Amino acid sequence: MTKKSSRPISVVTGGAGFLGSHLTDRLLEEGHDVIVIDNFITGSPHNLEHLAENIHLKFIRHDVTEYIFVPGPVHYVWHFASPASPIDYLELPIPTLKVGSLGTHNALGLAREKKAAFLLASTSETYGDPLIHPQTEDYWGNVNPVGPRGVYDEAKRFAEAMTMAYHTFHGMDTKIVRIFNTYGPRMRLRDGRVVPTFIGQALTNQSLTIFGDGSQTRSFCYVSDLIDGIYRLMMSEYHHPVNIGNPREMTIKEFGEAILKLIETTSAMEFKPLPIDDPKVRQPDITRAKTILKWEPKIDFEEGIQETIHYFRSKI
Ligand code: NAD
Ligand code: UDP
């Protein structure tokens, strides 16, 4: 990275993860210098290896729940560090709570020190098992704080509260994106999320593990669409939470059927118990993103899922 650069400088916490690495690609394309901070707890250096020779990228291996030191100017802090798949955060309950609370505090502190804009990667999980459908940003949610998912949901809710307090109390330029289920290349094959799990199972002729009766719904957004919405949000003047996701909703059983149609396989479906507090429905209302950011998803499910299958074929 050049020392006296006129390029904007971005810090991406969690930049070695699925979304953080795609965000890093986009920022480099936009002409930023990027400093990735990651401790690899769920991410991997492989997600950034295509950028190994890029002089505009710097990597710091660090746990952001500890004080974050970055020398020189910083213009944008993108706080993406956190386990994100239910399997990961069930295995890592305390690191998940710590990165959402202490990690967010440190990342906000870095942004304040540098007079940088700050964006929090929050989640549709702040709505919990929602009682209104589709979910609008003014819905406060239905979260069980002491259930297994509470470690993630409450950490993100705390992170949103902390981010908003830095905006109102310190006058900082902060943004909050509520990300709905996103998929694409660089997800971990075995991260337990439904997209890599079903594709991996179909590619290896194993049964697709449908939890419950498969009537619960999700709405899947392709990663490039999500990153575009997030980039627009950071560059906007808007400080309240914004949903970014694809409103096309389907049941998990329909998703499994789609995978079985698209992949030549001998796999069938196998029904397993529904995990505790698994949300029954999830669909973003994206009116706010459409109005304020002039954003809506462009990649339809059929196209995005083919790209993703293509990626996982190379990983098996
Ligand atoms: P991921 O697990 O692939 O990436 C998270 C990254 O954060 C990993 O590289 C991990 O090593 C790093 N990390 C975790 N704790 C850290 C710590 N204490 N210090 C430094 N690095 C740390 O997950 P993802 O899907 O890329 O999710 C990224 C962000 O987006 C998360 O904050 C997640 O909550 C949010 N999000 C993702 C989705 C989705 O569908 N992918 C949905 C909602 C919200
Ligand atoms: N799911 C499933 N089989 C699996 C993995 C997940 O049926 O092997 C279901 C899960 O119960 C949930 C949905 O798929 O209803 C999406 O799960 P994921 O872990 O991808 O993310 P979530 O939206 O629950 O955070």
Explain what this protein looks like in three dimensions.
- It contains nine helices and 13 strands.
- It has 316 residues and is α/β, with parallel strands linked by helices.
- The chain has a domain at 9-183 and 221-247 and 284-298: Rossmann fold (3-Layer(aba) Sandwich), CATH 3.40.50.720.
- It has a seven-stranded parallel sheet, with helices on both faces. Strands 7-10 form a two-stranded parallel sheet.
- α5 packs parallel to α7.
- The mean pLDDT is 97.
- The structure holds nicotinamide-adenine-dinucleotide and uridine-5'-diphosphate.
- Residues 85-86, 181, 192-194, 197, 209-211, 216, 218, 252, 275, 278 line the site of uridine-5'-diphosphate.
Topology at a glance:
Elements: E1 9-13, H1 18-29, E2 33-38, E3 57-61, E4 76-79, H2 86-91, H3 93-114, E5 117-123, H4 150-170, E6 174-179, E7 182-183, H5 194-203, E8 208-211, E9 217-219, E10 221-222, H6 223-234, E11 242-244, E12 249-251, H7 252-262, E13 269-272, H8 287-293, H9 301-313
Parallel strand pairs: 1-2, 1-4, 2-3, 4-5, 5-6, 6-11, 7-10, 8-13
Antiparallel strand pairs: 9-12
Helix pairs in contact: 1-6, 3-4, 5-7
The chain binds nicotinamide-adenine-dinucleotide and uridine-5'-diphosphate.
Beta-strand percentage? 15-25%
Largest sheet: 7 strands, parallel
CATH architecture of the domain at 9-183 and 221-247 and 284-298: 3-Layer(aba) Sandwich
Which class best fits the helix and strand makeup? alpha/beta
The residue-averaged pLDDT reads 97
